[in-house]
Specification:
Structural class: mainly alpha
Number of strands: 3
Radius of gyration: 47 Å
Distance between the termini: 104 Å
Number of helices: 4
Largest sheet: 3 strands, antiparallel
Order of helices and strands: HHHEEEH
Length: 189
Amino acid sequence: MLGKQRVLLERELELLTSEREKTDQLVQRQLMRSGQAVLAETRLTNTQRELLELTRSVFRAQQEAARLDQLTGELESERRAAIRLDLQETDARIEQVKTRIVTASAVFASTIGLEVNAGAEPADTNSIASAFRSMIEEPAPVKPVFSIKRQRIDSEPELLQASEDTYVRPGDVVKVTLVPIEAEDAATQ
């Protein structure tokens, strides 16, 4: 829009300059009054002023466009950095949750008598889940069997059979295993 207006003003300026030159020649030959020459000069000056204002407006618009482009680039850069940070934080949280799942699975597995490798992945805990499901679907009467792993000062750790009333010392590790009552009865017979 401003480009078209500029072209029109430049064309008008050319025509007014040509008209002023002709008017000056006629005034010098005294074929025209000087009042008309002043009028032509005024129109030429007004058109030059409009062209100058238009040029300033175009320059300001270009400056503003450049500033907005720079601001857009900065905002995009900041947004990318924020997204990268969020992604790193999310990855870290996912790793924490995986570690918690493995730890919880190992604890659960030890309570129902399964063994789990220390480096097990959550996908490797299917046996734990199936064992748990079988316990829920086919509940068998169970009895807790307690044992204590106690570290002796001068020897290897000792595994002691315990009951619900056994005294537990600091540093002891208590293991509870659920044993079906039928298996225990068969073992005592």
